[in-house]
Design a protein that fits this description.
There is one protein chain. This protein has 71 residues and is an all-alpha fold. The protein is built from three helices and no strands. It is elongated and about 50 Å long. The termini are far apart. The relative contact order is 0.14.
Length: 71
């Protein structure tokens, strides 16, 4: 399950809505946030989950590369 599916289920939101909140959060460069308090929390969780998912993917790629080098 992807990070957006997991968070969407937790908050009762569609994957698109979660991704839209995340994308809006990515565009924020100052304290004048267009996100509500709830959306800020969703954004923070989404960003953390996304980073964890990406890190896991990178680790599995590196492991596969190591296995190929050992062959």
């Amino acid at each position: 399950m992807s990070w957006s599916e997991t968070i969407g289920q937790k908050y009762g939101l569609s994957i698109r809505k979660v991704e839209a909140i995340w994308a809006t959060g990515q565009g924020i460069t100052n304290s004048c946030s267009p996100l509500s308090t709830k959306e800020k929390k969703i954004y923070e969780e989404a960003e953390k989950a996304r980073r964890i998912e990406i890190t896991g993917s990178l680790e599995s790629i590196l492991e596969e590369m190591k296995r190929e080098d050992l062959r």
